[in-house]
Amino acid sequence: MSFLATVKQRAKAQIKTIVLPESLDPRTLKATQQVLAEGLAKVILIGNKTAIEAAAKESAADISGATIIDPASYNELNTLIAKFYELRKDKGLTEEQAGKFLNENPLYLGCMLVKDDKADGMVAGAVYSTPDVLRPAMQIIKTAPGVSMVSSFFVMVVPSCEYGSNGVFLFSDCGLVQNPDAAQLATIAESSAKSYKSLMGEEPVVALLSHSTKCSARHADVDKVIEAVRILKERAPHLKADGEFQLDAAIVPSIGAAKAPGNEVAGNANVLIFPDLDSGNIAYKLVERLAKADAYGPVTQGIAKPVNDLSRGCTAEDLVGVVAITAVQAQQ
Ligand SMILES: CC(C)(COP(=O)(O)OP(=O)(O)OC[C@H]1O[C@@H](n2cnc3c(N)ncnc32)[C@H](O)[C@@H]1OP(=O)(O)O)[C@@H](O)C(=O)NCCC(=O)NCCS
User: Fold this and answer.
1) Ligand 1 atom having least distance to the Cα of 129
2) Domain range holding 127?
């Protein structure tokens, strides 16, 4: 079964409610129809009911099964404004600003619905930029207990590839944390291992990547990865995780055996942790373009409840896939 088919099957097993706040966008409306028809999740749309229904009609999308929350008439709005104000007043938010955010910005209202358990997750980014989607999530929903930082990953499905888990890999961080230090890199690796396990149901084998394998090169950049491995092993000794590895030593069994003999991770990794956002972002795009891999992401991890970002060039089909992934994350 393909990666997406597996995720959809998991989503259907325990139905969650996902907010799609960009509710006038035709792709959102078409995706809503498909998500409901496939039984992947319940959907909440945000905005003026008449305008959303008119947009749906224009897009020939049947959204009759979705819940529409219009801030102008939503009877829980004042309660949510008060809760938002409480949450952010120490950061300088006034009551007036809290009201303005929840009335005028569907991303903020969407995050408050998730925070207040009226929904289980949110997917946006077809219209808004990545920072606009992730900022309210980090401000309102915040990190999961015991996790210091939100990061992101891509699931890469590489055709005709014998490495990883039959060509399936998790790459991180390719989309969010710009220049992680060693402790942050360890957090990214730990979150990625959990994400892999929850989405794929298989044991993660985590490699922290570098331009060096087991001290073959010396540089402060290598030291950072070595320190991240040390921190990770201390925090999560049960994990099958190691580094620092060059990419070939991490995924090609014969090279792993030659460069790191006897190492259980070398040559067998299915979770690849990049030393910074430049290398991660370049790597996923290279694999997507040159190896013609399917790239699912960026999916966020480490948030208390899932909020995921889309590419503004996404299709309705892409949106459906991200909703299914978000629904599975919400089950954890
Ligand atoms: C996500 C991102 C937008 C946050 O930047 P920002 O809006 O300037 O955010 P700030 O630094 O002001 O932080 C906003 C809040 O989020 C929190 N935050 C920021 N990054 C965080 C992280 N990785 N994990 C958890 N919380 C985080 C901050 O602590 C702050 O919380 P507070 O207001 O309660 O104090 C930024 O990291 C970013 O732009 N990353 C790159 C994304 C991108 O462009 N990717 C392109 C490739 S796909």
Assistant:
1) 44
2) 3-142+305-331
